[in-house]
Write a structure and sequence with these properties.
The protein is an alpha/beta fold. The chain has 9 helices and 9 strands. The strands form 2 sheets. It has a 6-stranded mixed β-sheet, with helices on both faces.
């Protein structure tokens, strides 16, 4: 399909009018993330960043939801990897197992971080279009994007923070500040898209039937700016986030999430 992306259908990829549209494509599973899906998403984003006829990327989910989080029926539930995650016949006993030890857990979380953090490191801006549920691992993706537009009735949150851990991708504090970050993480409460816009978790929220048009218009306006200029703006702002500790915090969030997994 491309220099980097070899699609298996888990991700839809389309380029038109200087805009690459990357779509999570498991609508029947609310676009829940599997290892294979994350790997394909990584390659799709890299493909879009490499194409000279792309100036901006839109990340969205097929169907009613952006992403309901990680698929808990596979490796993320502590069971053996599902078939799509391991196409090759390998001896699983030779490899680290999620949750086997604290360090194994850290290693697995850092591996996933490298895939999702790519959004932050891309040269081209990424707009997240959030409809329906954006939960847990879905927020790990959305909050790494440069701009987030949501439907008013989108549902955004990380309920697992009540008992299972802390977000391994932690951009919450950079979007909403310390008090709202603590408020959302300490309760695990979800908020509507309209409220997410009010506190700065997303850029803006619009009625659900206007979301496509709003994202298309924002992407269209950005797409007319030269890619070199867009990369300059993104990287300057992201360096500011790095100076505020964003890179170090991701490493610490992964390690602390692994420790939180040990809590009873």
């Amino acid at each position: 399909m491309g220099k980097f992306l070899k699609s298996t259908g888990l991700i839809q990829f389309e380029v038109r009018d200087r805009i690459a549209r990357v779509t999570l494509n498991r609508p029947e599973k609310r676009n829940a993330l599997t290892p294979a899906m994350l790997a394909e998403l990584h390659d799709a984003l890299l493909e879009a960043d490499a194409l000279v006829d792309v100036n901006v990327i839109v990340l969205t989910g097929a169907g009613k939801d952006f992403c309901a989080g990680y698929d808990l029926t596979g490796v993320y539930a502590g069971r053996k990897a599902d078939a799509d995650a391991h196409a090759n016949d390998v001896d699983e006993a030779k490899y680290r197992t999620l949750g086997a030890t604290l360090d194994d857990d850290c290693w697995q979380l850092e591996k996933t971080q490298r895939q999702t953090r790519l959004i932050f490191d891309l040269h081209k801006p990424v707009i997240a279009k959030v409809q329906g549920n954006c939960m847990a691992g879905g927020t790990d993706l959305a909050l790494m994007c440069d701009l987030i537009l949501a439907a008013n009735d989108a549902k955004i949150g990380f309920p697992a923070t009540r008992a299972n851990g802390t977000p391994p991708n932690h951009m919450w504090v950079y979007h909403v500040g310390p008090q709202w970050a603590k408020r959302l993480l300490m309760t695990g409460d979800c908020i509507w898209g309209a409220d997410a816009a009010r506190i700065g978790l997303v850029l803006d929220a619009v009625p659900a039937d206007e979301l496509d048009a709003a994202v298309d218009e924002l992407a269209r306006r950005i797409s007319f700016v030269d890619a070199e200029m867009l990369a300059t703006h993104k990287r300057v702002v992201n360096v500011a986030l790095e100076l505020a500790g964003a890179g170090t915090l991701q490493r610490m969030a992964g390690e602390l999430d692994a420790r939180a997994h040990l809590s009873q």
